[in-house]
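User: Quick sanity check before I run a bigger batch. Here is a single chain. Can you write out its predicted 3D structure?
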Amino acid sequence: METATLLEQTHLDWLESEAVHILREVAAECERPVLLFSGGKDSCVLLRLAEKAFRPGKFPFPLLHVDTGHNFPEVIAFRDRRVAELGETLIVRRVEDSIARGTVVLQHANDSRNAAQATTLLEAIAEFRFDACIGGARRDEEKARAKERICSFRDEFGQWDPKNQRPELWNLYNTKVHPGENIRVFPISNWTELDVWQYVERERLSLPSLYYSHARDVVRRKGLLAPVTALTPAHEGEAVERLNVRFRTVGDVSCTCPVASDATTSADIIAETAVTNITERGATRMDDQVSEASMERRKKRGYF
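Assistant: Done. Predicted structure follows.
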Protein backbone atom coordinates (compact mmCIF):
# COMPACT_ATOMS: atom_id res chain seq x y z
CA MET A 1 0.00 0.00 0.00
CA GLU A 2 2.82 2.41 0.89
CA THR A 3 4.58 1.68 -2.43
CA ALA A 4 1.37 2.29 -4.33
CA THR A 5 0.90 5.62 -2.57
CA LEU A 6 4.39 6.72 -3.51
CA LEU A 7 3.86 5.72 -7.12
CA GLU A 8 0.63 7.72 -7.23
CA GLN A 9 2.40 10.93 -6.29
CA THR A 10 2.91 13.35 -9.16
CA HIS A 11 6.01 15.44 -9.79
CA LEU A 12 4.07 18.40 -8.36
CA ASP A 13 3.54 16.47 -5.12
CA TRP A 14 7.30 15.88 -4.87
CA LEU A 15 8.11 19.53 -5.59
CA GLU A 16 5.50 20.71 -3.10
CA SER A 17 6.79 18.34 -0.41
CA GLU A 18 10.38 19.56 -0.89
CA ALA A 19 9.33 23.22 -0.71
CA VAL A 20 7.20 22.69 2.41
CA HIS A 21 10.14 20.90 4.06
CA ILE A 22 12.45 23.84 3.24
CA LEU A 23 9.98 26.40 4.62
CA ARG A 24 9.63 24.48 7.87
CA GLU A 25 13.40 24.05 8.20
CA VAL A 26 13.96 27.79 7.76
CA ALA A 27 11.22 28.65 10.24
CA ALA A 28 12.73 26.25 12.78
CA GLU A 29 16.39 27.18 12.32
CA CYS A 30 16.37 30.93 11.58
CA GLU A 31 15.67 33.66 14.12
CA ARG A 32 14.13 36.34 11.87
CA PRO A 33 13.06 35.01 8.48
CA VAL A 34 10.90 36.96 6.03
CA LEU A 35 9.08 35.94 2.85
CA LEU A 36 9.45 38.20 -0.18
CA PHE A 37 6.02 38.79 -1.71
CA SER A 38 5.52 40.99 -4.78
CA GLY A 39 2.17 39.72 -6.02
CA GLY A 40 3.87 37.85 -8.88
CA LYS A 41 3.04 34.25 -9.77
CA ASP A 42 6.10 32.69 -8.10
CA SER A 43 5.52 34.50 -4.81
CA CYS A 44 1.83 33.52 -5.00
CA VAL A 45 2.96 29.91 -5.22
CA LEU A 46 5.19 30.52 -2.19
CA LEU A 47 2.20 31.81 -0.23
CA ARG A 48 0.23 28.66 -1.00
CA LEU A 49 3.19 26.52 0.04
CA ALA A 50 3.47 28.52 3.28
CA GLU A 51 -0.23 27.89 3.90
CA LYS A 52 0.36 24.15 3.51
CA ALA A 53 3.42 24.32 5.77
CA PHE A 54 1.93 26.33 8.65
CA ARG A 55 -1.87 26.59 8.53
CA PRO A 56 -4.09 26.71 10.53
CA GLY A 57 -1.58 28.83 12.45
CA LYS A 58 -0.22 32.15 11.21
CA PHE A 59 2.97 32.26 9.23
CA PRO A 60 6.08 32.33 11.47
CA PHE A 61 7.42 35.28 9.47
CA PRO A 62 6.14 38.52 7.95
CA LEU A 63 5.93 39.28 4.21
CA LEU A 64 8.14 41.91 2.58
CA HIS A 65 7.77 43.74 -0.71
CA VAL A 66 10.46 46.03 -2.09
CA ASP A 67 8.35 48.44 -4.14
CA THR A 68 10.12 50.19 -7.02
CA GLY A 69 7.31 52.75 -7.34
CA HIS A 70 7.09 51.71 -11.01
CA ASN A 71 5.02 48.57 -10.49
CA PHE A 72 1.91 47.79 -12.46
CA PRO A 73 -1.05 49.09 -10.42
CA GLU A 74 -2.98 45.86 -11.01
CA VAL A 75 -0.21 43.92 -9.26
CA ILE A 76 -0.06 46.25 -6.24
CA ALA A 77 -3.85 46.06 -5.85
CA PHE A 78 -3.67 42.25 -6.05
CA ARG A 79 -0.80 42.18 -3.52
CA ASP A 80 -2.78 44.13 -0.94
CA ARG A 81 -5.96 42.13 -1.51
CA ARG A 82 -4.17 38.79 -1.15
CA VAL A 83 -2.41 39.82 2.06
CA ALA A 84 -5.73 40.99 3.52
CA GLU A 85 -7.34 37.64 2.62
CA LEU A 86 -4.57 35.78 4.42
CA GLY A 87 -4.55 38.09 7.44
CA GLU A 88 -0.75 38.20 7.43
CA THR A 89 1.67 41.08 8.06
CA LEU A 90 3.11 42.89 5.02
CA ILE A 91 6.13 45.18 5.28
CA VAL A 92 6.64 47.51 2.31
CA ARG A 93 9.92 49.30 1.73
CA ARG A 94 10.20 51.66 -1.22
CA VAL A 95 13.02 52.44 -3.63
CA GLU A 96 11.64 55.99 -3.64
CA ASP A 97 12.68 56.34 0.03
CA SER A 98 16.19 55.08 -0.78
CA ILE A 99 16.40 57.72 -3.51
CA ALA A 100 15.31 60.38 -1.00
CA ARG A 101 18.02 59.21 1.43
CA GLY A 102 20.64 59.33 -1.31
CA THR A 103 21.51 55.64 -1.04
CA VAL A 104 20.12 55.10 -4.55
CA VAL A 105 21.15 57.50 -7.30
CA LEU A 106 19.65 57.21 -10.78
CA GLN A 107 21.10 58.86 -13.87
CA HIS A 108 17.63 59.77 -15.11
CA ALA A 109 14.32 60.02 -13.24
CA ASN A 110 12.62 57.41 -15.41
CA ASP A 111 15.48 54.88 -15.37
CA SER A 112 14.57 51.30 -14.48
CA ARG A 113 14.54 50.87 -10.71
CA ASN A 114 14.72 47.10 -10.94
CA ALA A 115 18.40 46.81 -10.00
CA ALA A 116 18.01 49.52 -7.33
CA GLN A 117 15.82 47.12 -5.36
CA ALA A 118 19.01 45.49 -4.06
CA THR A 119 19.92 48.57 -2.01
CA THR A 120 16.42 48.93 -0.55
CA LEU A 121 16.33 45.22 0.30
CA LEU A 122 19.68 45.41 2.11
CA GLU A 123 18.41 48.43 4.04
CA ALA A 124 15.29 46.48 5.06
CA ILE A 125 17.41 43.49 6.12
CA ALA A 126 19.52 45.77 8.32
CA GLU A 127 16.45 47.57 9.71
CA PHE A 128 14.66 44.40 10.81
CA ARG A 129 17.77 42.22 11.23
CA PHE A 130 16.36 39.53 8.94
CA ASP A 131 18.64 36.50 8.79
CA ALA A 132 16.79 34.69 5.99
CA CYS A 133 14.88 36.10 3.02
CA ILE A 134 12.62 33.53 1.35
CA GLY A 135 12.17 34.25 -2.36
CA GLY A 136 10.52 32.70 -5.40
CA ALA A 137 13.54 32.54 -7.74
CA ARG A 138 13.86 29.42 -9.88
CA ARG A 139 17.01 27.96 -11.43
CA ASP A 140 15.46 27.76 -14.90
CA GLU A 141 15.00 31.54 -15.14
CA GLU A 142 18.53 32.38 -16.23
CA LYS A 143 22.20 31.43 -15.78
CA ALA A 144 23.05 33.35 -12.61
CA ARG A 145 20.07 31.93 -10.73
CA ALA A 146 21.11 28.43 -11.79
CA LYS A 147 24.24 28.95 -9.64
CA GLU A 148 22.25 29.54 -6.45
CA ARG A 149 21.96 27.02 -3.66
CA ILE A 150 18.55 26.59 -2.05
CA CYS A 151 20.00 28.30 1.03
CA SER A 152 22.29 30.85 -0.60
CA PHE A 153 24.73 32.60 1.72
CA ARG A 154 25.22 36.40 1.77
CA ASP A 155 28.08 38.01 3.68
CA GLU A 156 27.88 40.95 6.09
CA PHE A 157 27.81 43.35 3.14
CA GLY A 158 24.87 41.53 1.56
CA GLN A 159 27.05 40.26 -1.26
CA TRP A 160 26.94 36.88 -2.95
CA ASP A 161 29.94 34.87 -4.07
CA PRO A 162 28.84 32.05 -6.41
CA LYS A 163 32.19 30.29 -5.85
CA ASN A 164 31.80 30.27 -2.07
CA GLN A 165 28.51 28.48 -1.41
CA ARG A 166 27.80 25.69 1.01
CA PRO A 167 27.19 22.12 -0.18
CA GLU A 168 23.64 20.81 0.22
CA LEU A 169 24.12 17.06 0.25
CA TRP A 170 21.19 14.76 1.02
CA ASN A 171 18.82 17.73 1.34
CA LEU A 172 20.64 19.06 4.41
CA TYR A 173 20.54 22.87 4.57
CA ASN A 174 23.08 24.86 6.56
CA THR A 175 21.31 27.95 7.91
CA LYS A 176 24.05 29.04 10.31
CA VAL A 177 24.91 32.73 9.91
CA HIS A 178 27.00 35.17 11.91
CA PRO A 179 25.66 38.58 12.99
CA GLY A 180 25.14 40.78 9.95
CA GLU A 181 25.09 37.86 7.51
CA ASN A 182 21.97 36.39 5.96
CA ILE A 183 20.81 33.74 3.57
CA ARG A 184 18.45 33.89 0.62
CA VAL A 185 16.22 30.84 0.57
CA PHE A 186 14.65 29.59 -2.67
CA PRO A 187 12.17 26.77 -1.91
CA ILE A 188 11.05 26.50 -5.55
CA SER A 189 14.56 26.40 -7.00
CA ASN A 190 13.89 23.06 -8.68
CA TRP A 191 10.60 24.17 -10.24
CA THR A 192 10.24 25.32 -13.84
CA GLU A 193 7.90 27.92 -15.30
CA LEU A 194 5.74 25.03 -16.52
CA ASP A 195 5.66 23.51 -13.02
CA VAL A 196 4.50 26.84 -11.61
CA TRP A 197 1.62 27.10 -14.07
CA GLN A 198 0.63 23.48 -13.51
CA TYR A 199 0.56 24.20 -9.77
CA VAL A 200 -1.48 27.37 -10.33
CA GLU A 201 -3.96 25.25 -12.30
CA ARG A 202 -4.05 22.43 -9.75
CA GLU A 203 -4.43 24.73 -6.74
CA ARG A 204 -6.71 27.18 -8.58
CA LEU A 205 -4.57 30.10 -7.47
CA SER A 206 -5.65 33.66 -8.19
CA LEU A 207 -3.08 35.81 -10.00
CA PRO A 208 -2.97 39.41 -11.26
CA SER A 209 -4.97 39.82 -14.46
CA LEU A 210 -1.84 40.85 -16.40
CA TYR A 211 -0.75 37.21 -16.56
CA TYR A 212 -3.64 36.46 -18.91
CA SER A 213 -4.34 37.67 -22.43
CA HIS A 214 -5.63 41.23 -22.72
CA ALA A 215 -5.52 43.98 -25.34
CA ARG A 216 -2.67 46.48 -24.83
CA ASP A 217 -0.81 49.16 -26.75
CA VAL A 218 2.78 48.07 -27.44
CA VAL A 219 5.75 49.01 -29.63
CA ARG A 220 8.41 46.72 -31.03
CA ARG A 221 11.72 47.55 -29.35
CA LYS A 222 14.96 45.54 -29.17
CA GLY A 223 13.14 42.46 -30.36
CA LEU A 224 10.53 42.72 -27.58
CA LEU A 225 7.01 44.11 -27.23
CA ALA A 226 7.39 47.12 -24.94
CA PRO A 227 4.19 48.29 -23.22
CA VAL A 228 3.11 51.86 -23.91
CA THR A 229 2.34 53.58 -20.60
CA ALA A 230 2.68 57.04 -19.09
CA LEU A 231 6.04 55.92 -17.71
CA THR A 232 7.14 54.20 -20.94
CA PRO A 233 5.74 56.20 -23.89
CA ALA A 234 6.46 55.32 -27.49
CA HIS A 235 9.68 56.79 -28.89
CA GLU A 236 9.67 59.06 -31.90
CA GLY A 237 9.17 57.01 -35.04
CA GLU A 238 7.83 53.91 -33.23
CA ALA A 239 4.51 52.54 -34.43
CA VAL A 240 2.02 51.80 -31.65
CA GLU A 241 0.12 48.53 -32.11
CA ARG A 242 -2.89 47.20 -30.22
CA LEU A 243 -2.23 43.50 -29.61
CA ASN A 244 -3.49 40.68 -27.44
CA VAL A 245 -0.67 40.04 -24.97
CA ARG A 246 0.09 38.58 -21.56
CA PHE A 247 2.97 39.01 -19.13
CA ARG A 248 5.12 36.02 -18.19
CA THR A 249 6.61 38.02 -15.32
CA VAL A 250 5.38 41.27 -13.73
CA GLY A 251 8.34 43.39 -12.63
CA ASP A 252 9.18 47.07 -12.99
CA VAL A 253 7.06 48.69 -15.72
CA SER A 254 10.15 50.28 -17.25
CA CYS A 255 11.78 46.97 -18.19
CA THR A 256 9.07 44.30 -18.24
CA CYS A 257 7.57 43.32 -21.59
CA PRO A 258 4.59 41.14 -22.51
CA VAL A 259 4.43 38.44 -25.15
CA ALA A 260 1.80 38.05 -27.85
CA SER A 261 -0.79 35.57 -26.60
CA ASP A 262 -4.47 34.66 -26.70
CA ALA A 263 -4.19 32.50 -23.55
CA THR A 264 -6.98 33.47 -21.16
CA THR A 265 -6.75 30.55 -18.71
CA SER A 266 -3.98 28.75 -16.85
CA ALA A 267 -4.66 25.68 -19.02
CA ASP A 268 -4.07 27.79 -22.13
CA ILE A 269 -0.81 29.10 -20.66
CA ILE A 270 0.35 25.58 -19.79
CA ALA A 271 -0.11 24.62 -23.43
CA GLU A 272 1.88 27.67 -24.60
CA THR A 273 4.65 27.21 -22.04
CA ALA A 274 5.11 23.54 -22.91
CA VAL A 275 6.27 24.40 -26.43
CA THR A 276 8.18 27.66 -25.91
CA ASN A 277 11.95 27.62 -26.38
CA ILE A 278 12.63 31.11 -25.00
CA THR A 279 13.28 31.60 -21.28
CA GLU A 280 10.88 33.64 -19.21
CA ARG A 281 13.30 36.49 -18.58
CA GLY A 282 14.85 36.32 -22.04
CA ALA A 283 11.47 36.96 -23.61
CA THR A 284 10.24 39.66 -21.26
CA ARG A 285 12.97 41.56 -19.40
CA MET A 286 14.60 44.34 -21.37
CA ASP A 287 17.20 45.12 -18.69
CA ASP A 288 18.45 41.50 -18.64
CA GLN A 289 19.34 41.69 -22.32
CA VAL A 290 22.16 44.17 -21.79
CA SER A 291 24.54 41.28 -21.22
CA GLU A 292 24.47 37.69 -20.01
CA ALA A 293 26.34 38.75 -16.87
CA SER A 294 23.96 41.58 -15.89
CA MET A 295 21.94 39.50 -13.42
CA GLU A 296 25.05 37.95 -11.86
CA ARG A 297 26.56 41.40 -11.24
CA ARG A 298 23.35 42.51 -9.53
CA LYS A 299 23.17 39.42 -7.38
CA LYS A 300 26.73 39.91 -6.21
CA ARG A 301 25.65 43.36 -4.99
CA GLY A 302 22.68 41.97 -3.07
CA TYR A 303 19.88 41.57 -5.62
CA PHE A 304 17.30 38.82 -5.05
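Residues 104 and 241 are 35 Å apart (CA to CA).

User: Great, the batch can go ahead then.
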